[in-house]
Each structure stands twice: as C-alpha cells, then as structure tokens.
Amino acid sequence: MHPYITKIAFATVIVAAQIGSAYGQVSALQSASSEKIWTGLYIAPVTAEIAAAQGLPRPFGVLVAGVVPESPAARAGLQADDIIVQSDSEWIANPPAWIKHLEQQKPGEQRTLTVVRAAKKGNSSLSFEAKADAAALPLIRPFAEQGIPDAERDLAVRLLALVPGLNDPTVTQNKEVASKQREVAVLLLHDAANQNDAAAQRLLGDLYREGREVTTDLTTAHRLYLRSAAQDDSDAQI
Length: 238
Fold this sequence. Notes:
The protein is α+β, with helices and mostly antiparallel strands. Helices cover 52% and strands 18% of the residues.
C-alpha cells in the first residue's frame, strides 16, 4: 500500500466520521450521503493454489478475505478463507461476477450462498443491508488498512460520495478535509487497481476519462479499461 495512505491519510479519512464532535457535521453527512448495499464481506480472487487446497478442480468463485464483526456476513457465519461459488442459482465465477451480483441486490433481500470451506460445500443465508457512507467508514477502515483491494475500493467510493456533503454551503465546512478525502480516495483506488482489482481499475478509468478528482487523461483511462476488461469485467468501457 502507498505509504501516504498508511502514515497520513487514514487519520484524515476518519475525520469525516469523527468531525461531528468538532463541527456538528456527521448527521448532515449521513443524511446527504447515499446508502449502499452493505454485507461486511471483502473478497479476493481464488488462485490455483487456493483452489487446489479447497478441492476445486480450477480457480473459481471468490475468496473471503475479511468479514466485519457483527455485519450481515458475520451473522451469516461466513469466515475468512471461505470460497463463495454460488448465490441462489447464480454461479459466482470471479470477483467481477460477485460485484455485478451485488449491484443487482436491494436492501432487505436475502440470498443463499453456496460456500466451500475446508474442501466441503455448505450453505449460508446472507442478507443485504444498507449503510450510510459516513457510518460505514470506521467499519471498512481496518480492512482497507490491511491492503484488501475490495475494502480499499469500497472505502474510496464512500469517501468520494461524502465530498459533496463536506462542500455543501449549508454545512459547516472543512475544505482541507474534503481535499484530503479526494486525494485519499484516488490513492486507494490506485492501490486496489495495482493489485488487479477489476472494479477499481474500471472506476479509476472513469475518473481519468471524465476528469473527476484527477486531471483528464484518456490514455490512462483506456489502459485501465483494458486491464479491467481482461479480467472479465463486462462493464469496462474500451
């Protein structure tokens, strides 16, 4: 992970969630920010070595890299090193497939996951909840600090969603926090993209294509889209 993130930026990240005690902003931020699907589950690709150890004939599914305590994933009994291969009748071939699956879910829905643990298959019932961006930051932070790409991307997206709230003239402002928040979000996406997180590559490509939070760079955007598409991310715009 980029040293700036670990040494400086995470202290700034949490300011957005803690700022209420000093500026009275948290409730305003939470109401202004969108609520995204929340599982408390962070995933990684299944390598050939992991597949062999779990009795799979080839790499397939998504590896559970981390589970937030007391989250929907924790209540479903999911554990680190589990492999999710199916949700109801839908096969989950890889991380892009899981992310696309999440994007189709709504708060309150529940799915039965087929999970491989210790080379044996079992089922878990996972509920999809909603959590406001500001409320999620402290829960995501420890997993992003570990350099888990899925968590880094989740944290980056929620940070960027909070920036308009920090710049809202009706809210007591701290422009330095908003600026750092943008910088941290971009660094998190870069770190996740460098670890071959397809969704992070696609989102970062969008930022460079549209000139949001970064200087417009169509060459960099195209390169990121190519890397994302190479991992079967069907949403990557080439």
